[in-house]
Amino acid sequence: MALPKLQVNDKSPKCDGTTSPDETTTSPVTRKSLHQNIFGKLRPVPLQYHWTVWHDKHSDSTNYDSRLFVLHEDLADIATFYRVYNNYPWGKVRLRDTVHIFRKGVRPVWEDPENLKGGCWKFRVPKEKAQEFFHEIAILCMANEFQAALEEEHDHVLGISTSMRFNSHIISVWNKLGDNERSIQLLERTILDRLSPDLRPTGSKTYFYKRHEENEGYREAVERAALQN
């Protein structure tokens, strides 16, 4: 795609070697900085980590792999995120289906090596606020707001999920170290501090932290994955 031409006040001398009185000369350095400024605005803002969008179609099958589908393999910049996000048919997602946004290379399952010892904060969000809540969580996650809070704990935020329920959504933020209490508390504080005031949970019973190993079926999933490997 051709880049738009930038009109710079770079006046060439007239035939008599003079310039008009109201014309100002723009140096090559200034012209270059102007070009860089406008071209920089045209480029998508890159993300520090690349992300993959997944769709988990709910079923009673124990074969979890048959339920997972990649919607977009590589979100590398914020423009791509919005292209995917804004064109996704959110209103048509079935009850109990889940959409995940995870770091590229990490699958949104307990038995993934990155998730084995982890857990997640789970928020039960009223349906009317769920989409806005998930949007803010997604932006905060990909902008490294959560990751920055956990750097000193050597922990990682690996992904986020939104699972559709009848009158609410379960929105989760997954981290790698489920046994690091300080890391878990820092993540909670950062989520609550960074969310818009009208989206913050109104009571402690509306959200909680759960380690993956505390879920029913965790051990079976891990053992099945070990046999497959």
TrEMBL record:
<dbReference type="Pfam" id="PF01652">
    <property type="entry name" value="IF4E"/>
</dbReference>
<comment type="similarity">
    <text>Belongs to the eukaryotic initiation factor 4E family.</text>
</comment>
<dbReference type="GO" id="GO:0000340">
    <property type="term" value="F:RNA 7-methylguanosine cap binding"/>
</dbReference>
<dbReference type="InterPro" id="IPR001040">
    <property type="entry name" value="TIF_eIF_4E"/>
</dbReference>
<feature type="region of interest" description="Disordered">
    <location>
        <begin position="1"/>
        <end position="30"/>
    </location>
</feature>
<keyword id="KW-0810">Translation regulation</keyword>
<dbReference type="GO" id="GO:0003743">
    <property type="term" value="F:translation initiation factor activity"/>
</dbReference>
<dbReference type="GO" id="GO:0006417">
    <property type="term" value="P:regulation of translation"/>
</dbReference>
<feature type="compositionally biased region" description="Polar residues">
    <location>
        <begin position="17"/>
        <end position="30"/>
    </location>
</feature>
<keyword id="KW-0694">RNA-binding</keyword>
<keyword id="KW-0396">Initiation factor</keyword>
<dbReference type="InterPro" id="IPR023398">
    <property type="entry name" value="TIF_eIF4e-like"/>
</dbReference>
<keyword id="KW-0648">Protein biosynthesis</keyword>
<protein>
    <recommendedName>
        <fullName>Translation initiation factor eIF4E</fullName>
    </recommendedName>
</protein>
<dbReference type="GO" id="GO:0016281">
    <property type="term" value="C:eukaryotic translation initiation factor 4F complex"/>
</dbReference>
